[in-house]
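Q: I'm building a small set of examples for a reading group on sequence design. Run inverse folding on the following structure and report the sequence directly after it, with nothing in between.
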């Protein structure tokens, strides 16, 4: 861990369906932190769904909203921030997140991800003739970015509660006072 970092927050990154939102809520409870979710914030502020933003304005417009938000969230303290799956693939976003948060990546295999997202329809990137292939391809492209997180936790064989405990523990270890 780099010296002088302000770990006043915890950010969860990772692919769609790795449990960032559900696990983030549990971690926030455990740490007595506020829970924020970048997708939710974008939807509340624009009054539009992410699917609508992608469809009408295109993905680059959504990425610009994400980028602005990452800058703005630097003012937070005591927050668990769940981020959209593509957010850390912009290296500036990842670098900025690291200035104010411990960045924890939730990892899952493509098979597990498919199992978790197959009955959901709100993610525009998975509106594809072959969503399983799309997951494999996107995950392979994004893995180098996700690996730059401070901590990587595999969620395949763990319950949400177990993962949340691991995340909270990692945060406590990273922020414990050094003598
Ligand atoms: C995206 C993931 C989604 C959402 C948008 C794009 C991505 O968030 O930000 O649909 O690029 O992987 P979740 O990871 O919360 O599903």
């Amino acid at each position: 861990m780099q010296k002088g970092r302000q770990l006043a927050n915890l950010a969860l990154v990772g692919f769609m369906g790795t449990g960032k939102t559900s696990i983030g809520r549990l971690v926030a409870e455990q740490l007595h932190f506020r829970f924020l979710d970048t997708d939710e914030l974008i939807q509340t502020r624009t009054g539009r769904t992410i699917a609508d933003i992608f469809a009408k304005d295109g993905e680059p417009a959504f990425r610009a909203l994400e980028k602005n938000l990452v800058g703005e969230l630097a003012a937070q303290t005591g927050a668990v921030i769940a981020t959209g799956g593509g957010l850390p693939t912009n290296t500036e976003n990842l670098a900025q997140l690291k200035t104010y948060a411990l960045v924890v990546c939730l990892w899952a295999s493509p098979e597990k991800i498919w199992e978790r997202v197959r009955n959901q329809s709100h993610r525009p990137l998975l509106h594809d003739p072959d969503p399983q292939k799309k997951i494999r391809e996107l995950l392979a492209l994004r893995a180098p970015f996700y690996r730059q997180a401070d901590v990587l936790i595999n969620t395949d064989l763990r319950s949400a509660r177990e993962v949340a405990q691991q995340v909270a523990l990692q945060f406590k270890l990273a922020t414990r006072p050094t003598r």
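The chain has a mean pLDDT of 95.
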